[in-house]
Structure to design on (554 residues):
């Protein structure tokens, strides 16, 4: 009676307690997370579907992580969202859950939570914004910002023009409409089988976004009735599919840390090197910014992810199960492609096989580092240059406009102490703009190396996720300005050309930086966060908790 009576205060009739499935709808809605601001309306469509299929829907808020406002980085809070949502799903009397996400970290955070709990779950991402339009051309969120920032620094654009362009770029609800991290992770959720076919690409304001949400409300009841839990969908085969799809779509390097973290929750064996070996025979098919030309709206009209997955054919595990309770092969077998300039065929790809994310190793990154080849400059993929070292992005920005900065096109720019423990939270600081001195000379790219991440909307020859990070005593901490560094992507090597005895002496003199926090979440995070090569989850959150809590309070 307690449980029912208190719920009746919301005006439900007594029939809702007749034993029908109770479906939680985890909503990462917030006005502080503009990419997710329409999710409360998406939730209404999910509820329609749940009611239609004979369930009882109950919407609840989960931590909204807005990429653009959160300090020092939304990544610091991905695991907090995952932990909060996991406990909310476990502690409440739910039979299944619909996960509503949008902005970058909300998709992996909710998938991590659902993976640990193990109740039937389905994801509905909020969809991308409509294409940005500025001065008669399409502009992509994020990608255009990096270009305009450089144009402003180089004097090619005024502050007033920048302010006007901002509104042109963001003209509807939705997440970034480049193939940035949000679009990548929406595609990963679909490739893993956790959201309905076509879900990743419907624009946020398209009626079919809401139709898909309603359908997801029906499907979750089917998943509950047939006990289809996330571990039955997100198998090793599903992760292999996702990694290959990520290469085909030219997806974000952030997918690496997020997929590793989700796999860690499920106990699926997945390693950093899988991201290199599995993609060597996968060409880039999707011609979207930042690797290509178009935007998510174009991708949707061209046929979306099912058209890509159909094109990949035998490169994917066709028999992997999805939330439709059909296999990948059954879902995409007849998927049409309407525009071959947006989704290119296997025999005429945007970039040949092997141009996706490469995993580098060497004495500068013993546990690995990654580079997005499709966003790099071909002439820099084999490069030797002298290091110019900064201990934070802020210290670099203080001198980035200095016309006397000792830098040239061969310089290897090091930005360090940006890893999970160091910054903290492993921010997207790796793709710092080039020094103004080089930009004015027309240089558009130099090698940059960082233990942080890079925005999925960014481009450049940037070595990321160096592990172990500098703050954890990784060799990146030992580099000095003037040291020679060799990057050899074809050989998957990143080498600091300094003798071992000299490195040992530098290590003996090195002291770790002070902890960035002494209390609260940031302290807990820095004490327990793992390195990028295993996905940056907290050590005590990997694995499953299960749907049952220990004791009843009433
Ligand atoms: Fe939210 Fe890009 S800022 S998706």
């Amino acid at each position: 009676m307690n449980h029912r009576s208190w719920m009746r205060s919301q005006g439900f009739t007594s029939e809702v307690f007749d034993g029908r499935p109770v479906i939680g709808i985890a909503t990462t809605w917030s006005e502080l997370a503009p990419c997710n601001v329409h999710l409360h309306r998406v939730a209404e469509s999910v509820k329609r579907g749940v009611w239609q299929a004979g369930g009882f829907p109950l919407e609840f808020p989960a931590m909204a992580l807005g990429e653009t406002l959160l300090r020092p980085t939304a990544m610091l809070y991905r695991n907090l969202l995952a932990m909060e949502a996991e406990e909310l799903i476990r502690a409440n009397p739910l039979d299944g859950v619909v996960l509503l996400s949008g902005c970058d970290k909300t998709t992996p955070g909710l998938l991590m939570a659902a993976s640990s709990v193990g109740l039937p779950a389905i994801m509905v991402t909020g969809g991308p914004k409509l294409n940005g339009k500025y001065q008669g051309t399409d502009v992509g969120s994020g990608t255009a910002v990096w270009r305009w920032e450089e144009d402003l620094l180089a004097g090619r654009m005024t502050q007033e023009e920048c302010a006007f362009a901002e509104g042109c770029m963001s003209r509807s609800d939705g997440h970034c409409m480049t193939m940035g991290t949000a679009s990548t992770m929406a595609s990963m959720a679909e490739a893993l089988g956790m959201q309905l076919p076509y879900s990743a690409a419907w624009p946020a304001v398209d009626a079919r976004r809401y139709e898909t949400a309603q359908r997801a409300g029906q499907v979750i009841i089917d998943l509950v009735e047939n006990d289809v839990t996330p571990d039955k969908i997100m198998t090793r085969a599903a992760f292999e599919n996702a990694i290959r799809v990520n290469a085909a779509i030219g997806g974000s390097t952030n997918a690496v840390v997020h997929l590793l973290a989700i796999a860690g929750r499920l106990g699926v064996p997945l390693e950093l090197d899988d991201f290199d070996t599995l993609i060597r025979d996968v060409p880039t098919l999707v011609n979207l910014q930042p690797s290509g030309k178009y935007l998510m709206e174009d991708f949707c009209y061209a046929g979306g992810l099912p058209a890509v997955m159909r094109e990949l054919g035998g490169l994917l595990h066709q028999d992997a199960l999805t939330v439709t309770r059909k296999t990948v092969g059954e879902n995409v077998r007849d998927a049409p492609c309407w525009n071959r300039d947006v989704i290119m065929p296997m025999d005429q790809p945007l970039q040949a096989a092997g141009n996706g994310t490469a995993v580098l190793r060497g004495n500068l990154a013993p546990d690995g580092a990654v580079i997005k080849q499709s966003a790099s400059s071909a002439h820099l993929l084999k490069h030797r240059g002298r290091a110019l070292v900064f201990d934070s992005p802020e210290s670099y920005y203080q001198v980035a406009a200095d016309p006397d900065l000792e830098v040239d096109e061969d310089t290897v720019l090091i930005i360090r102490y940006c890893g999970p423990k160091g910054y903290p939270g492993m921010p997207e600081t790796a793709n710092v703009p080039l020094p103004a001195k080089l930009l004015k000379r027309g240089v558009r790219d130099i090698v940059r190396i960082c233990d942080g991440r890079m925005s999925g909307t960014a481009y450049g020859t940037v070595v990321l996720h160096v592990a172990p990070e500098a703050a954890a005593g990784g060799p990146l901490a030992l580099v000095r300005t003037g040291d020679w560094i060799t990057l050899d992507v074809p050989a998957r090597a990143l080498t600091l050309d300094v003798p071992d005895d000299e490195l040992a002496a530098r290590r003996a003199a090195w002291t770790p930086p002070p902890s960035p926090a002494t209390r609260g979440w940031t302290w807990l995070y820095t004490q327990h966060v793992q390195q990028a090569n295993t996905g940056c989850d907290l050590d005590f959150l990997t694995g499953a908790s299960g749907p049952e809590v220990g004791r009843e309070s009433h």
